[in-house]
Every structure is written in structure tokens, then in C-alpha cells.
Write a structure and sequence with these properties.
It is built from 14 helices and eleven strands. The protein is α/β, with parallel strands linked by helices. The strands form two sheets. It has a six-stranded mixed sheet. It has a five-stranded antiparallel sheet with strand order 9-8-7-10-11. Helix 1 packs across helix 14 and helix 8 packs across helix 9. Bound molecules: nicotinamide-adenine-dinucleotide-5-hydroxy-4-oxonorvaline. The site of nicotinamide-adenine-dinucleotide-5-hydroxy-4-oxonorvaline (NHO) has 31 residues, from helix 1, helix 4, helix 8 and helix 14. Nicotinamide-adenine-dinucleotide-5-hydroxy-4-oxonorvaline binds next to helix 1, helix 4, helix 8 and helix 14.
């Protein structure tokens, strides 16, 4: 008699991360005969694939099936009813950055459906929503994991949880949490000559966009909110009831005059007029033998959080960072004066999807 366990997987979002996730899921399904991973629902914002009898959707053919589909996504309440009625446990994979989906996490979890996601939205809206999510999961036994919401595949969230759950006390966390801003400052203000010509700030921003490092509108990276969201998550896990990413100082790198221009293209076109602002800051740091970096930090003892520019010695781990790497530094009671440091690539489809798949594997062993 077969002892194969069946788990239904519902995937919302099939963009950059979602496509990589499906590739890795197909590979996992082939390597894990003890669990039948049945993809029963997949959707983008426009199209969906599912059937009333929960028949398996081919994981490797899912993107083609979506393209050919005439089905539209189920509204969230109908989706929750559909998944809650599945004849085995269900894990929902939210590969969107949708607030609509994030707002429904307490409902989804309360119906016994587990969630794994790189979406930061649910964990960075009000503190009450954060509490509702974990209360709903605790009540129903459903699991919720979001490793890739900070540092893509780097083991950041799991490390913070381990520190806290084993009774250590996190005193301070600081680091460079944005792959995009890491890349920008490592190119604009390199710690040592890289061989590449260093351009003006505006041309480095344009280059980062060309290379696909920024959001379609680079202002979404340069306003600091992505870093503020990650800092909010880390601070909450460390025990601070942070109300929202808007409740502490965040230094935007967008010149005031360009905050409200209509498009990202117009912003890039006008940015050269403001290059002197960033050049002056860079020169002031250089005068002290330092380099500029965009840093997030939380002091748990004084309950203070901030996000913005700071200058560092070239030999400092933040100064010497390369490429689009992230670095997370944890000062804790146990680690004393030598912090625990996690460093490595912190953005990109495959490594973000890896964080999501790692979470799914954890859930599979718990449900
Ligand atoms: P895309 O490519 O825009 O895809 C989104 C998909 O969701 C599309 O298929 C869209 O149709 C679907 N969708 C949107 N709303 C929907 C709805 N209401 N219902 C159904 N479907 C809907 O986005 P990505 O790049 O694939 O990102 C997906 C999620 O992963 C986002 O929450 C994003 O924040 C998160 N994420 C991405 C990355 C990355 O590298 N791409 C990272 C972390 C998390 O580690 C990365 C990171 O932090 C990058 C950061 N910018 C940095 O450090 O610089």
C-alpha cells in the first residue's frame, strides 16, 4: 500500500519570482516521492487555471496553461472556500506584491490553509494585522513562513526566530537590506577601484535600471520604503511592536522636486539636474576617507529605528560590500561585541524563489 502523502499547492503570482518558483517546485516534486505535490490552482492578476475536482495541473506546463487559459482568478473569498474544501492539506504560495492578497492572510490561515511568501505587504501593514496573522495561524494550526521577505534566500528570518526562541536577546540590528541600493552605492562610491568608470549619480541610477536591478519606476527603490519594510519585519520579530514602516524616519533619495513627476522615465530624464546633491554628500564622506551607504538600523533597547545614508570606513563590512549583496548584522546578548553577520546576494528571482521553496519544505514536514 502506498504511503504517499498528498498536499495541494495553490500559487498566486507567476512573474519573476513565481516562474522561478515553479521551476524549483517541479524539481522538488521529482526529488520527493514521499509527497505528492498537487498544483491545484495557479493565477496571475488576469488569468487562472483550476478545476472543480482539484485535478493536478502540470507544474512544468503551468505557464503555458496560464497563457492558454480563459479562466479568470477567483475572488479571494471564493478562492478561500475552494481551497478549504480540498480533500487534503493546502499550502498557498503568494508570489505577488498584492495588498489585496496580503490583507486576506488572517482569513486564509483561519481556514487551515498554510502560507509561504516573499510578499512583504502582510507583515508591514498595521501591527494589529501582524498579530491577527499569527493568532489565526496558532488557532487553526496552519503555518505561515516568509523567509524571502528579507534578504531573498539568505537565512535571515529563520535566524532571528532562532535567536529569539532560544532565549537570546537582540539588542541591535543594522545592515544594507536593499539589493538595488547596495548595487547603486557600491558602483557610485566603491571602496576600492573596480576598473569600471564611476558615473554621476543619475547615470548610475539609469545603469542600475538598464541592468534590471531596480523596480520599473526606480523611485520605488529610492524612496527607502523597501528597506523600511524589511526593517519593520526584523524589529517586530525582535520584539518591538512597530506600528508601520511610516512610523520612523526614512530618508528618501528622491529630490523633492521629482517626487511627484508623472513617470519613472520623466524622473530619470530630470535626475541629472540634481546630481550635485549626491556628489556633495559623496565628497564630504570621501574627505573623511569614507564611503556612503544606505543603511537600516534598529536599536531594540531604545526602541529607535531609522533608514538612511551613513558614511563608513572603506574597510568596514558595509563599506567593502560588493555587487548587489545584502548584509545583516545582529548584536545580541549572547554574541556580545562580535556580531552575528549574514551576507550574500539579496535580490533576484532564483534566490528569492529558493527562500520560498525552503519555507514550503518546512511546512510539508509540519502539516
Ligand atoms: P512580478 O514579476 O511583478 O510578478 C508579480 C506576479 O503577481 C504577476 O504574475 C502578477 O500578475 C501577479 N499578481 C499581482 N497581483 C495579483 C493579484 N491580486 N492576484 C493574482 N495575481 C497577482 O513580481 P516579482 O519580482 O516576481 O515579485 C514577487 C514578490 O516577491 C513581491 O512581493 C516582491 O516584493 C517579492 N520579492 C521579490 C524579490 C526579487 O528579487 N524580485 C525579492 C524579495 C521579495 O529578495 C528580493 C528583494 O528584496 C529585491 C529588492 N527590490 C531589493 O533588495 O533590491
Amino acid at each position: 500500500m502506498s504511503t504517499q502523502k498528498q498536499v495541494f499547492i495553490a500559487v498566486i503570482g507567476a512573474g519573476g519570482v513565481g516562474k522561478c518558483f515553479l521551476g524549483q517546485l517541479a524539481d522538488l516534486a521529482a526529488r520527493r516521492p514521499s509527497t505528492r505535490l498537487s498544483l491545484c490552482y495557479i493565477t496571475t492578476s488576469k488569468k487562472a487555471v483550476y478545476s472543480k475536482d482539484y485535478s493536478d495541473i502540470s507544474i512544468t506546463g503551468a505557464i503555458d496553461s496560464l497563457a492558454a487559459s480563459t479562466q479568470t482568478p477567483l475572488p479571494i473569498p471564493a478562492l478561500v472556500d475552494y481551497l478549504a474544501a480540498a480533500p487534503a492539506k493546502v499550502v498557498l504560495v503568494d508570489n505577488t506584491s498584492s495588498e489585496l492578497v496580503a490583507d486576506a492572510y488572517p482569513l486564509i490561515l483561519s481556514r487551515g490553509i498554510s502560507i509561504v511568501t516573499p510578499n512583504k505587504k502582510a507583515f508591514t501593514s498595521s501591527y494589529k494585522h501582524w498579530q491577527d496573522i499569527f493568532a489565526a495561524a496558532a488557532a487553526s494550526g496552519a503555518k505561515v513562513y516568509h523567509e524571502a521577505s528579507c534578504g531573498a534566500g539568505l537565512p535571515v528570518i529563520s535566524t532571528v526566530k532562532d535567536l529569539v526562541e532560544t532565549g537570546d536577546q537582540i539588542l541591535r540590528v543594522e545592515g544594507i537590506f536593499s539589493g538595488t541600493l547596495s548595487f547603486l552605492f557600491n558602483s557610485f562610491a566603491p571602496a576600492s577601484p573596480t576598473g569600471a568608470a564611476v558615473g554621476k549619480w543619475s547615470s548610475e541610477v539609469a545603469k542600475a535600471k538598464e541592468l534590471g536591478y531596480t523596480e520599473p519606476d526606480p523611485r520605488d527603490d529610492l524612496n527607502g520604503m523597501d528597506v523600511a519594510r524589511k526593517l519593520t519585519i526584523l524589529a517586530r520579530l525582535a520584539g518591538l511592536p512597530v506600528e508601520s514602516p511610516a512610523s520612523f524616519p526614512v530618508e528618501s533619495l528622491i529630490p523633492k522636486e521629482l517626487e511627484s513627476v508623472a513617470s519613472g522615465d520623466e524622473y530619470l530624464e530630470k535626475l541629472p539636474q540634481y546630481d550635485s546633491q549626491m556628489e556633495e554628500l559623496k565628497a564630504a564622506a570621501e574627505k573623511e576617507g569614507k564611503v556612503l551607504r544606505y543603511v537600516g538600523s534598529v536599536d531594540v533597547t531604545t526602541q529607535s529605528l531609522k533608514v538612511g545614508l551613513q558614511s563608513f570606513d572603506r574597510s568596514h563590512p558595509f563599506g567593502a560590500l560588493k555587487g548587489s549583496d545584502n548584509i545583516f548584522t545582529f548584536y545580541t546578548k549572547r554574541y556580545g561585541s562580535t556580531p552575528l553577520i549574514i551576507q550574500g546576494a539579496g535580490a533576484g528571482g532564483e534566490i528569492t524563489a529558493m527562500g520560498v521553496l525552503g519555507d514550503l519544505i518546512k511546512v510539508l514536514s509540519q502539516i
